Amino acid sequence: SDYSQEPLRHPCLRINAKEPFNAEPPRSALISSYVTPVDFFYKRNHGPVPLVDDIERYSVSLNGLIENPKELFMKDIRMLPKYNVTATLQCAGNRRTAMSKTRTVKGVGWDVSALGNAVWGGAKLADVLELVGIPKLSYSTQKGGKHVEFVSIDRCKEEKGGPYKASIPLSHASNPEADVLLAYEMNGEPLNRDHGYPLRVVIPGVIGARSVKWLDSISIIAEESQGFFMQKDYKMFPPSVNWDNIDWTTRRPQMDFPVQSVMCSLEDVDHIRPGKVTVSGYAVSGGGRGIERVDISVDGGKNWIEATRYQKTGVPYVADSPSSDKWAWVLFEVTLDVEQNTEIVAKAVDSAANVQPERVEEIWNLRGILNTSWHRVQLRVGR
Ligand code: MTE
Ligand code: MO
Questions:
Q1: How far apart are CA 209 and CA 134, in angstroms?
Q2: Which pTM does this prediction carry?
Q3: ipTM of this model?
Q4: 313 falls in which pLDDT band (50, 70, 90)?
Q5: Which protein residues have a CB closer than 5 Å to ligand 2 (ion)?
Q6: Are 358 and 374 in contact (CB under 8 A)?
Q7: Where along the chain do its domains lie?
Q8: How confident is the model at residue 218 (pLDDT cuts 50, 70, 90)?
Q9: How far, in Å, is the centroid of ligand 1 from the Cα of 210?
C-alpha cells in the first residue's frame, strides 16, 4: 500500500498510528468549541487516503436489489435538498487505552478524543434512495433488499486489499428522521481528504465505523454487509470471550453508541493548587437520545453534584427538546472546591435513563470497544 500521497495534518494531533493514519487532538482542545474545527477532528483510517482529483467524473453507483440501477454524479447529489446536521461522530475504540490497562486488548490505542462534533452538509440518503424507486420508510425492496451497503474506494489490509464497507438496515436508511446523510461538506467547507472527500456517509447516533468515507457505491442487499468491519470487528463481546474461544457469528454488528462522558479540562493525573477547580467535558449518547444529567463526584464516587449542560452558549440545554441538536454532544461544566488529593469522577445519564457503567472490568472486551465506564482523573493538590 502506498502512503506517498497523504494529506497534511495539524501538528497538534497526537498520532496513534502513522500508516494508516490515526490521530486525535489533545483533550483540552476538544472542549474549546461546540463545533470541532476540522483540523482538530480525529482521523481514523484503515488504509492510505484515496486521492479523487477528477470531481467531474466522480460518481456513486446505486445497485443491487433494485429495478433500475443508477450512476449518480456530484451534480445529481447537489440537486437534492441540502441539509446541515450537527452530529457527533465517535469511534467505537474511543478510550481503548484505558480499557487495555485492565487487560490487553487488540486495536489502535485511543485516549478520550476519538470523537468530534461537526456540522455535516449534504443530501439525505432517504432522498437519494427515492431516485432509484425506494420510497421513504421502506423495510424491503420488491426484490427483497433489506440492507443498504456502503462501499468505499479505499483499500485496506483487513479486506485483503479490498475496500472498506459497512451497512445499515434499509428501514434506517430510508427514514428521513434518522438524518442519514451523503455529506459533501463539513463545517461549511467541502470535506477534506482525511474525512472522505468528495462524499461520505454520516450515520448520526451510530458508531463511527458505519459512516463510510470516500463513497464508491451503495448496494441494496438482502442480508447485512459481509465486510470484515461488520462481521469480524466492531462487535461487543462479554469479558469471558477471548481469542481462543471467540465465535464472531454469535454477536451482531454494533450500531448505536451507548451513553458516554469524559472530563477534558483535566489530565489523567493532574496537579493543582487547593481551591476552586473547573471541570468541563463532553457527554453524548447514541440513537438520538439526549443527555439528561451529568454527575460529578469529588470523592471517588460517594457523593455527586450535577454539572451544567449546554450546546450553544447562553441557551439552556433540555434533553430531547426541539431546541436541542439531538445527534450532537452536550458540553458540561461545574466548579468544585478541592483541598486535598482526590479522585474526580464523571458519569452521564441519557434521556432513556441509561447510565455509564462504574467499572471498566464489567465491560472489558477483547477488541476494546465501547469503553464508557465512569471517567476518572486523579488530582494531586499542592501549594
Ligand atoms: N470509511 C472508509 N472508507 N475507510 C475507513 O477506514 N473508518 C471508519 C469510518 N469510515 C473508515 C471509514 C471509522 S472506524 C471511523 S471511527 C470513522 O470513519 C472516522 O471518521 P473520521 O476519520 O472522519 O473521523
Ligand atoms: Mo472507528
A1: 25
A2: 0.98
A3: 1.00
A4: confident
A5: 44, 91, 208-209
A6: yes
A7: 14-250, 260-381
A8: very high
A9: 8
